[in-house]
Amino acid sequence: MPVPSTGVTVTLRAMTEDELEARIDDLVDEYALDLHRSRGLPLDRARTEAQRQTADLLPDGVATTGTLMFTAEAGGAAVGWIWLSLSTPHQPGSAWIYEITVDAEHRGKGYGRALIRAAEDELARRGVTRLALNVFSHNTAAIRLYESVGFHTTSLQMAKSIGPAAEPAKW
């Protein structure tokens, strides 16, 4: 499916450790909120889980093997960032988007699409032929963006709380 052109372009450059450090708390906070909304985890537990998973996935920060982290720039200014994971032996030729963020003041201007296009170009140069991601069902703006650039649903997870207290499902 062709990606609609917005006329907006971004340049990707390797993210520095300082840039990651400046963004990591927001990343963890946003992921904790997603875990709270999707799994019903209490916020303190969701934050602990988000911190643990992030630390596990980025043991060496921006230098983590198999990880690409880029700052997206337009007109010389940072407009967002993307965190990609390269293929594993179980998924050769694939990459995964762990995080894509367009900074709040730059949203709604086409930078999200441009950032995805730039990431696709970078990954294609590296021989990647498939790009995937996870998006929480409550994030309808992101779902619309991803669908507009050609992503489609490949699996669907559903959950339901059961039992006398109907506590949120924990997995």
UniProtKB/TrEMBL annotation:
Q: Name one Pfam family in it.
A: Acetyltransf_1
Q: Where is the N-acetyltransferase domain?
A: 10-171
Q: Where exactly are the transmembrane stretches of this chain?
A: none
Molecular function as annotated in GO: acyltransferase activity, transferring groups other than amino-acyl groups
PANTHER family with a match to the protein in the record = L-AMINO ACID N-ACETYLTRANSFERASE
Tell me the protein's name: N-acetyltransferase domain-containing protein
Q: What is the lineage of its organism?
A: Bacteria, Bacillati, Actinomycetota, Actinomycetes, Micromonosporales
